[in-house]
Amino acid sequence: MRASTFRRLFNLWPPFLCNSMRLQMLSDDWSEARVVLRLRPWNRNYVRSQFGGNLFAMTDPFWMLLVMHQLGGDYYVWDKAAMIDFVAPGREDVYAHFKLQPTVVDELRAAAAGGDKVLRWFETNVATASGEVIARVRKQIYVRLKPRAR
Q1: For residue 1, what pLDDT is reported?
Q2: How many helices (H) and strands (E) does the chain have?
Q3: What is the secondary structure of 69-89 as a DSSP string?
Q4: Strand partners, 124
Q5: Structure-derived torsion over alpha carbons of residues 41, 134, 28, 142, reported in degrees to the nearest 10
Q6: Alpha-carbon span 148 to 141, nearest angstrom
Q7: Which end of the chain is more exposed for a tag (fewer CB within 10 A), N or C?
Q8: pTM score of the predicted model
Q9: How far apart are CA 127 and CA 98, in angstroms?
Q10: Taking the mean position of all CA atoms in its chain, how far away is CA 56?
């Protein structure tokens, strides 16, 4: 599927649509994505800031998707673990940017070439438009070359 088609369809996915999350940009080569979480009355917490579950959800699938599409169909790619550190209350719209460097893709291919599992941590800041960090999210991605490709 083309990245532009995926972006349009993804933005209709109920967990994103109903919580005012939007995949703003997905590069054609699946190396970069940008997501926004709009602060709305229905998605804020008791103290009127961004709900922590939404801060995590807005970042959840993207490292796995970028790695999966960059590596291609010969690899298993899964989320293995995740951590979130809430830094400050988000009292406005927040953004997350994901950029998968070509050198990281090459490192993953090399490490998985023998069929061993590879675990790699990726980090993303969730920040306001002015750059104030609201949360830091870490995702551990599992990569393994499929048996038919070894």
Answers
A1: 86
A2: 5, 6
A3: HHH-TTEEEEEEEEEEEE-S-
A4: 137
A5: -110
A6: 21
A7: N
A8: 0.93
A9: 12
A10: 9
Backbone angles phi, psi at 70, to 5 degrees: -70, -40
pLDDT one-digit tens code per residue, 17-59: 999 999 999 999 999 999 999 999 999 999 999 999 999 999 9
Query: What letter represents residue 6's amino acid?
Result: F
The answer to whether 95 touches 128, Cβ cutoff 8 Å, is yes
Residue 121 tokens read as 């941590």
**What span, in angstroms and rounded, lies between the C-alpha atoms of 102 and 66?**
11
Cα(32)–Cα(15) distance, integer angstroms: 21
* CA nearest to 24, candidates 110, 129, 104, 101: 129
What is the amino acid identity at position 139?
K
Q: What's the burial of 98, exposed, middle or buried (CB within 10 Å: 0-12/13-18/19+)? A: buried
Task: Confirm if 126 and 55 have CB atoms less than 8 A apart.
Answer: yes
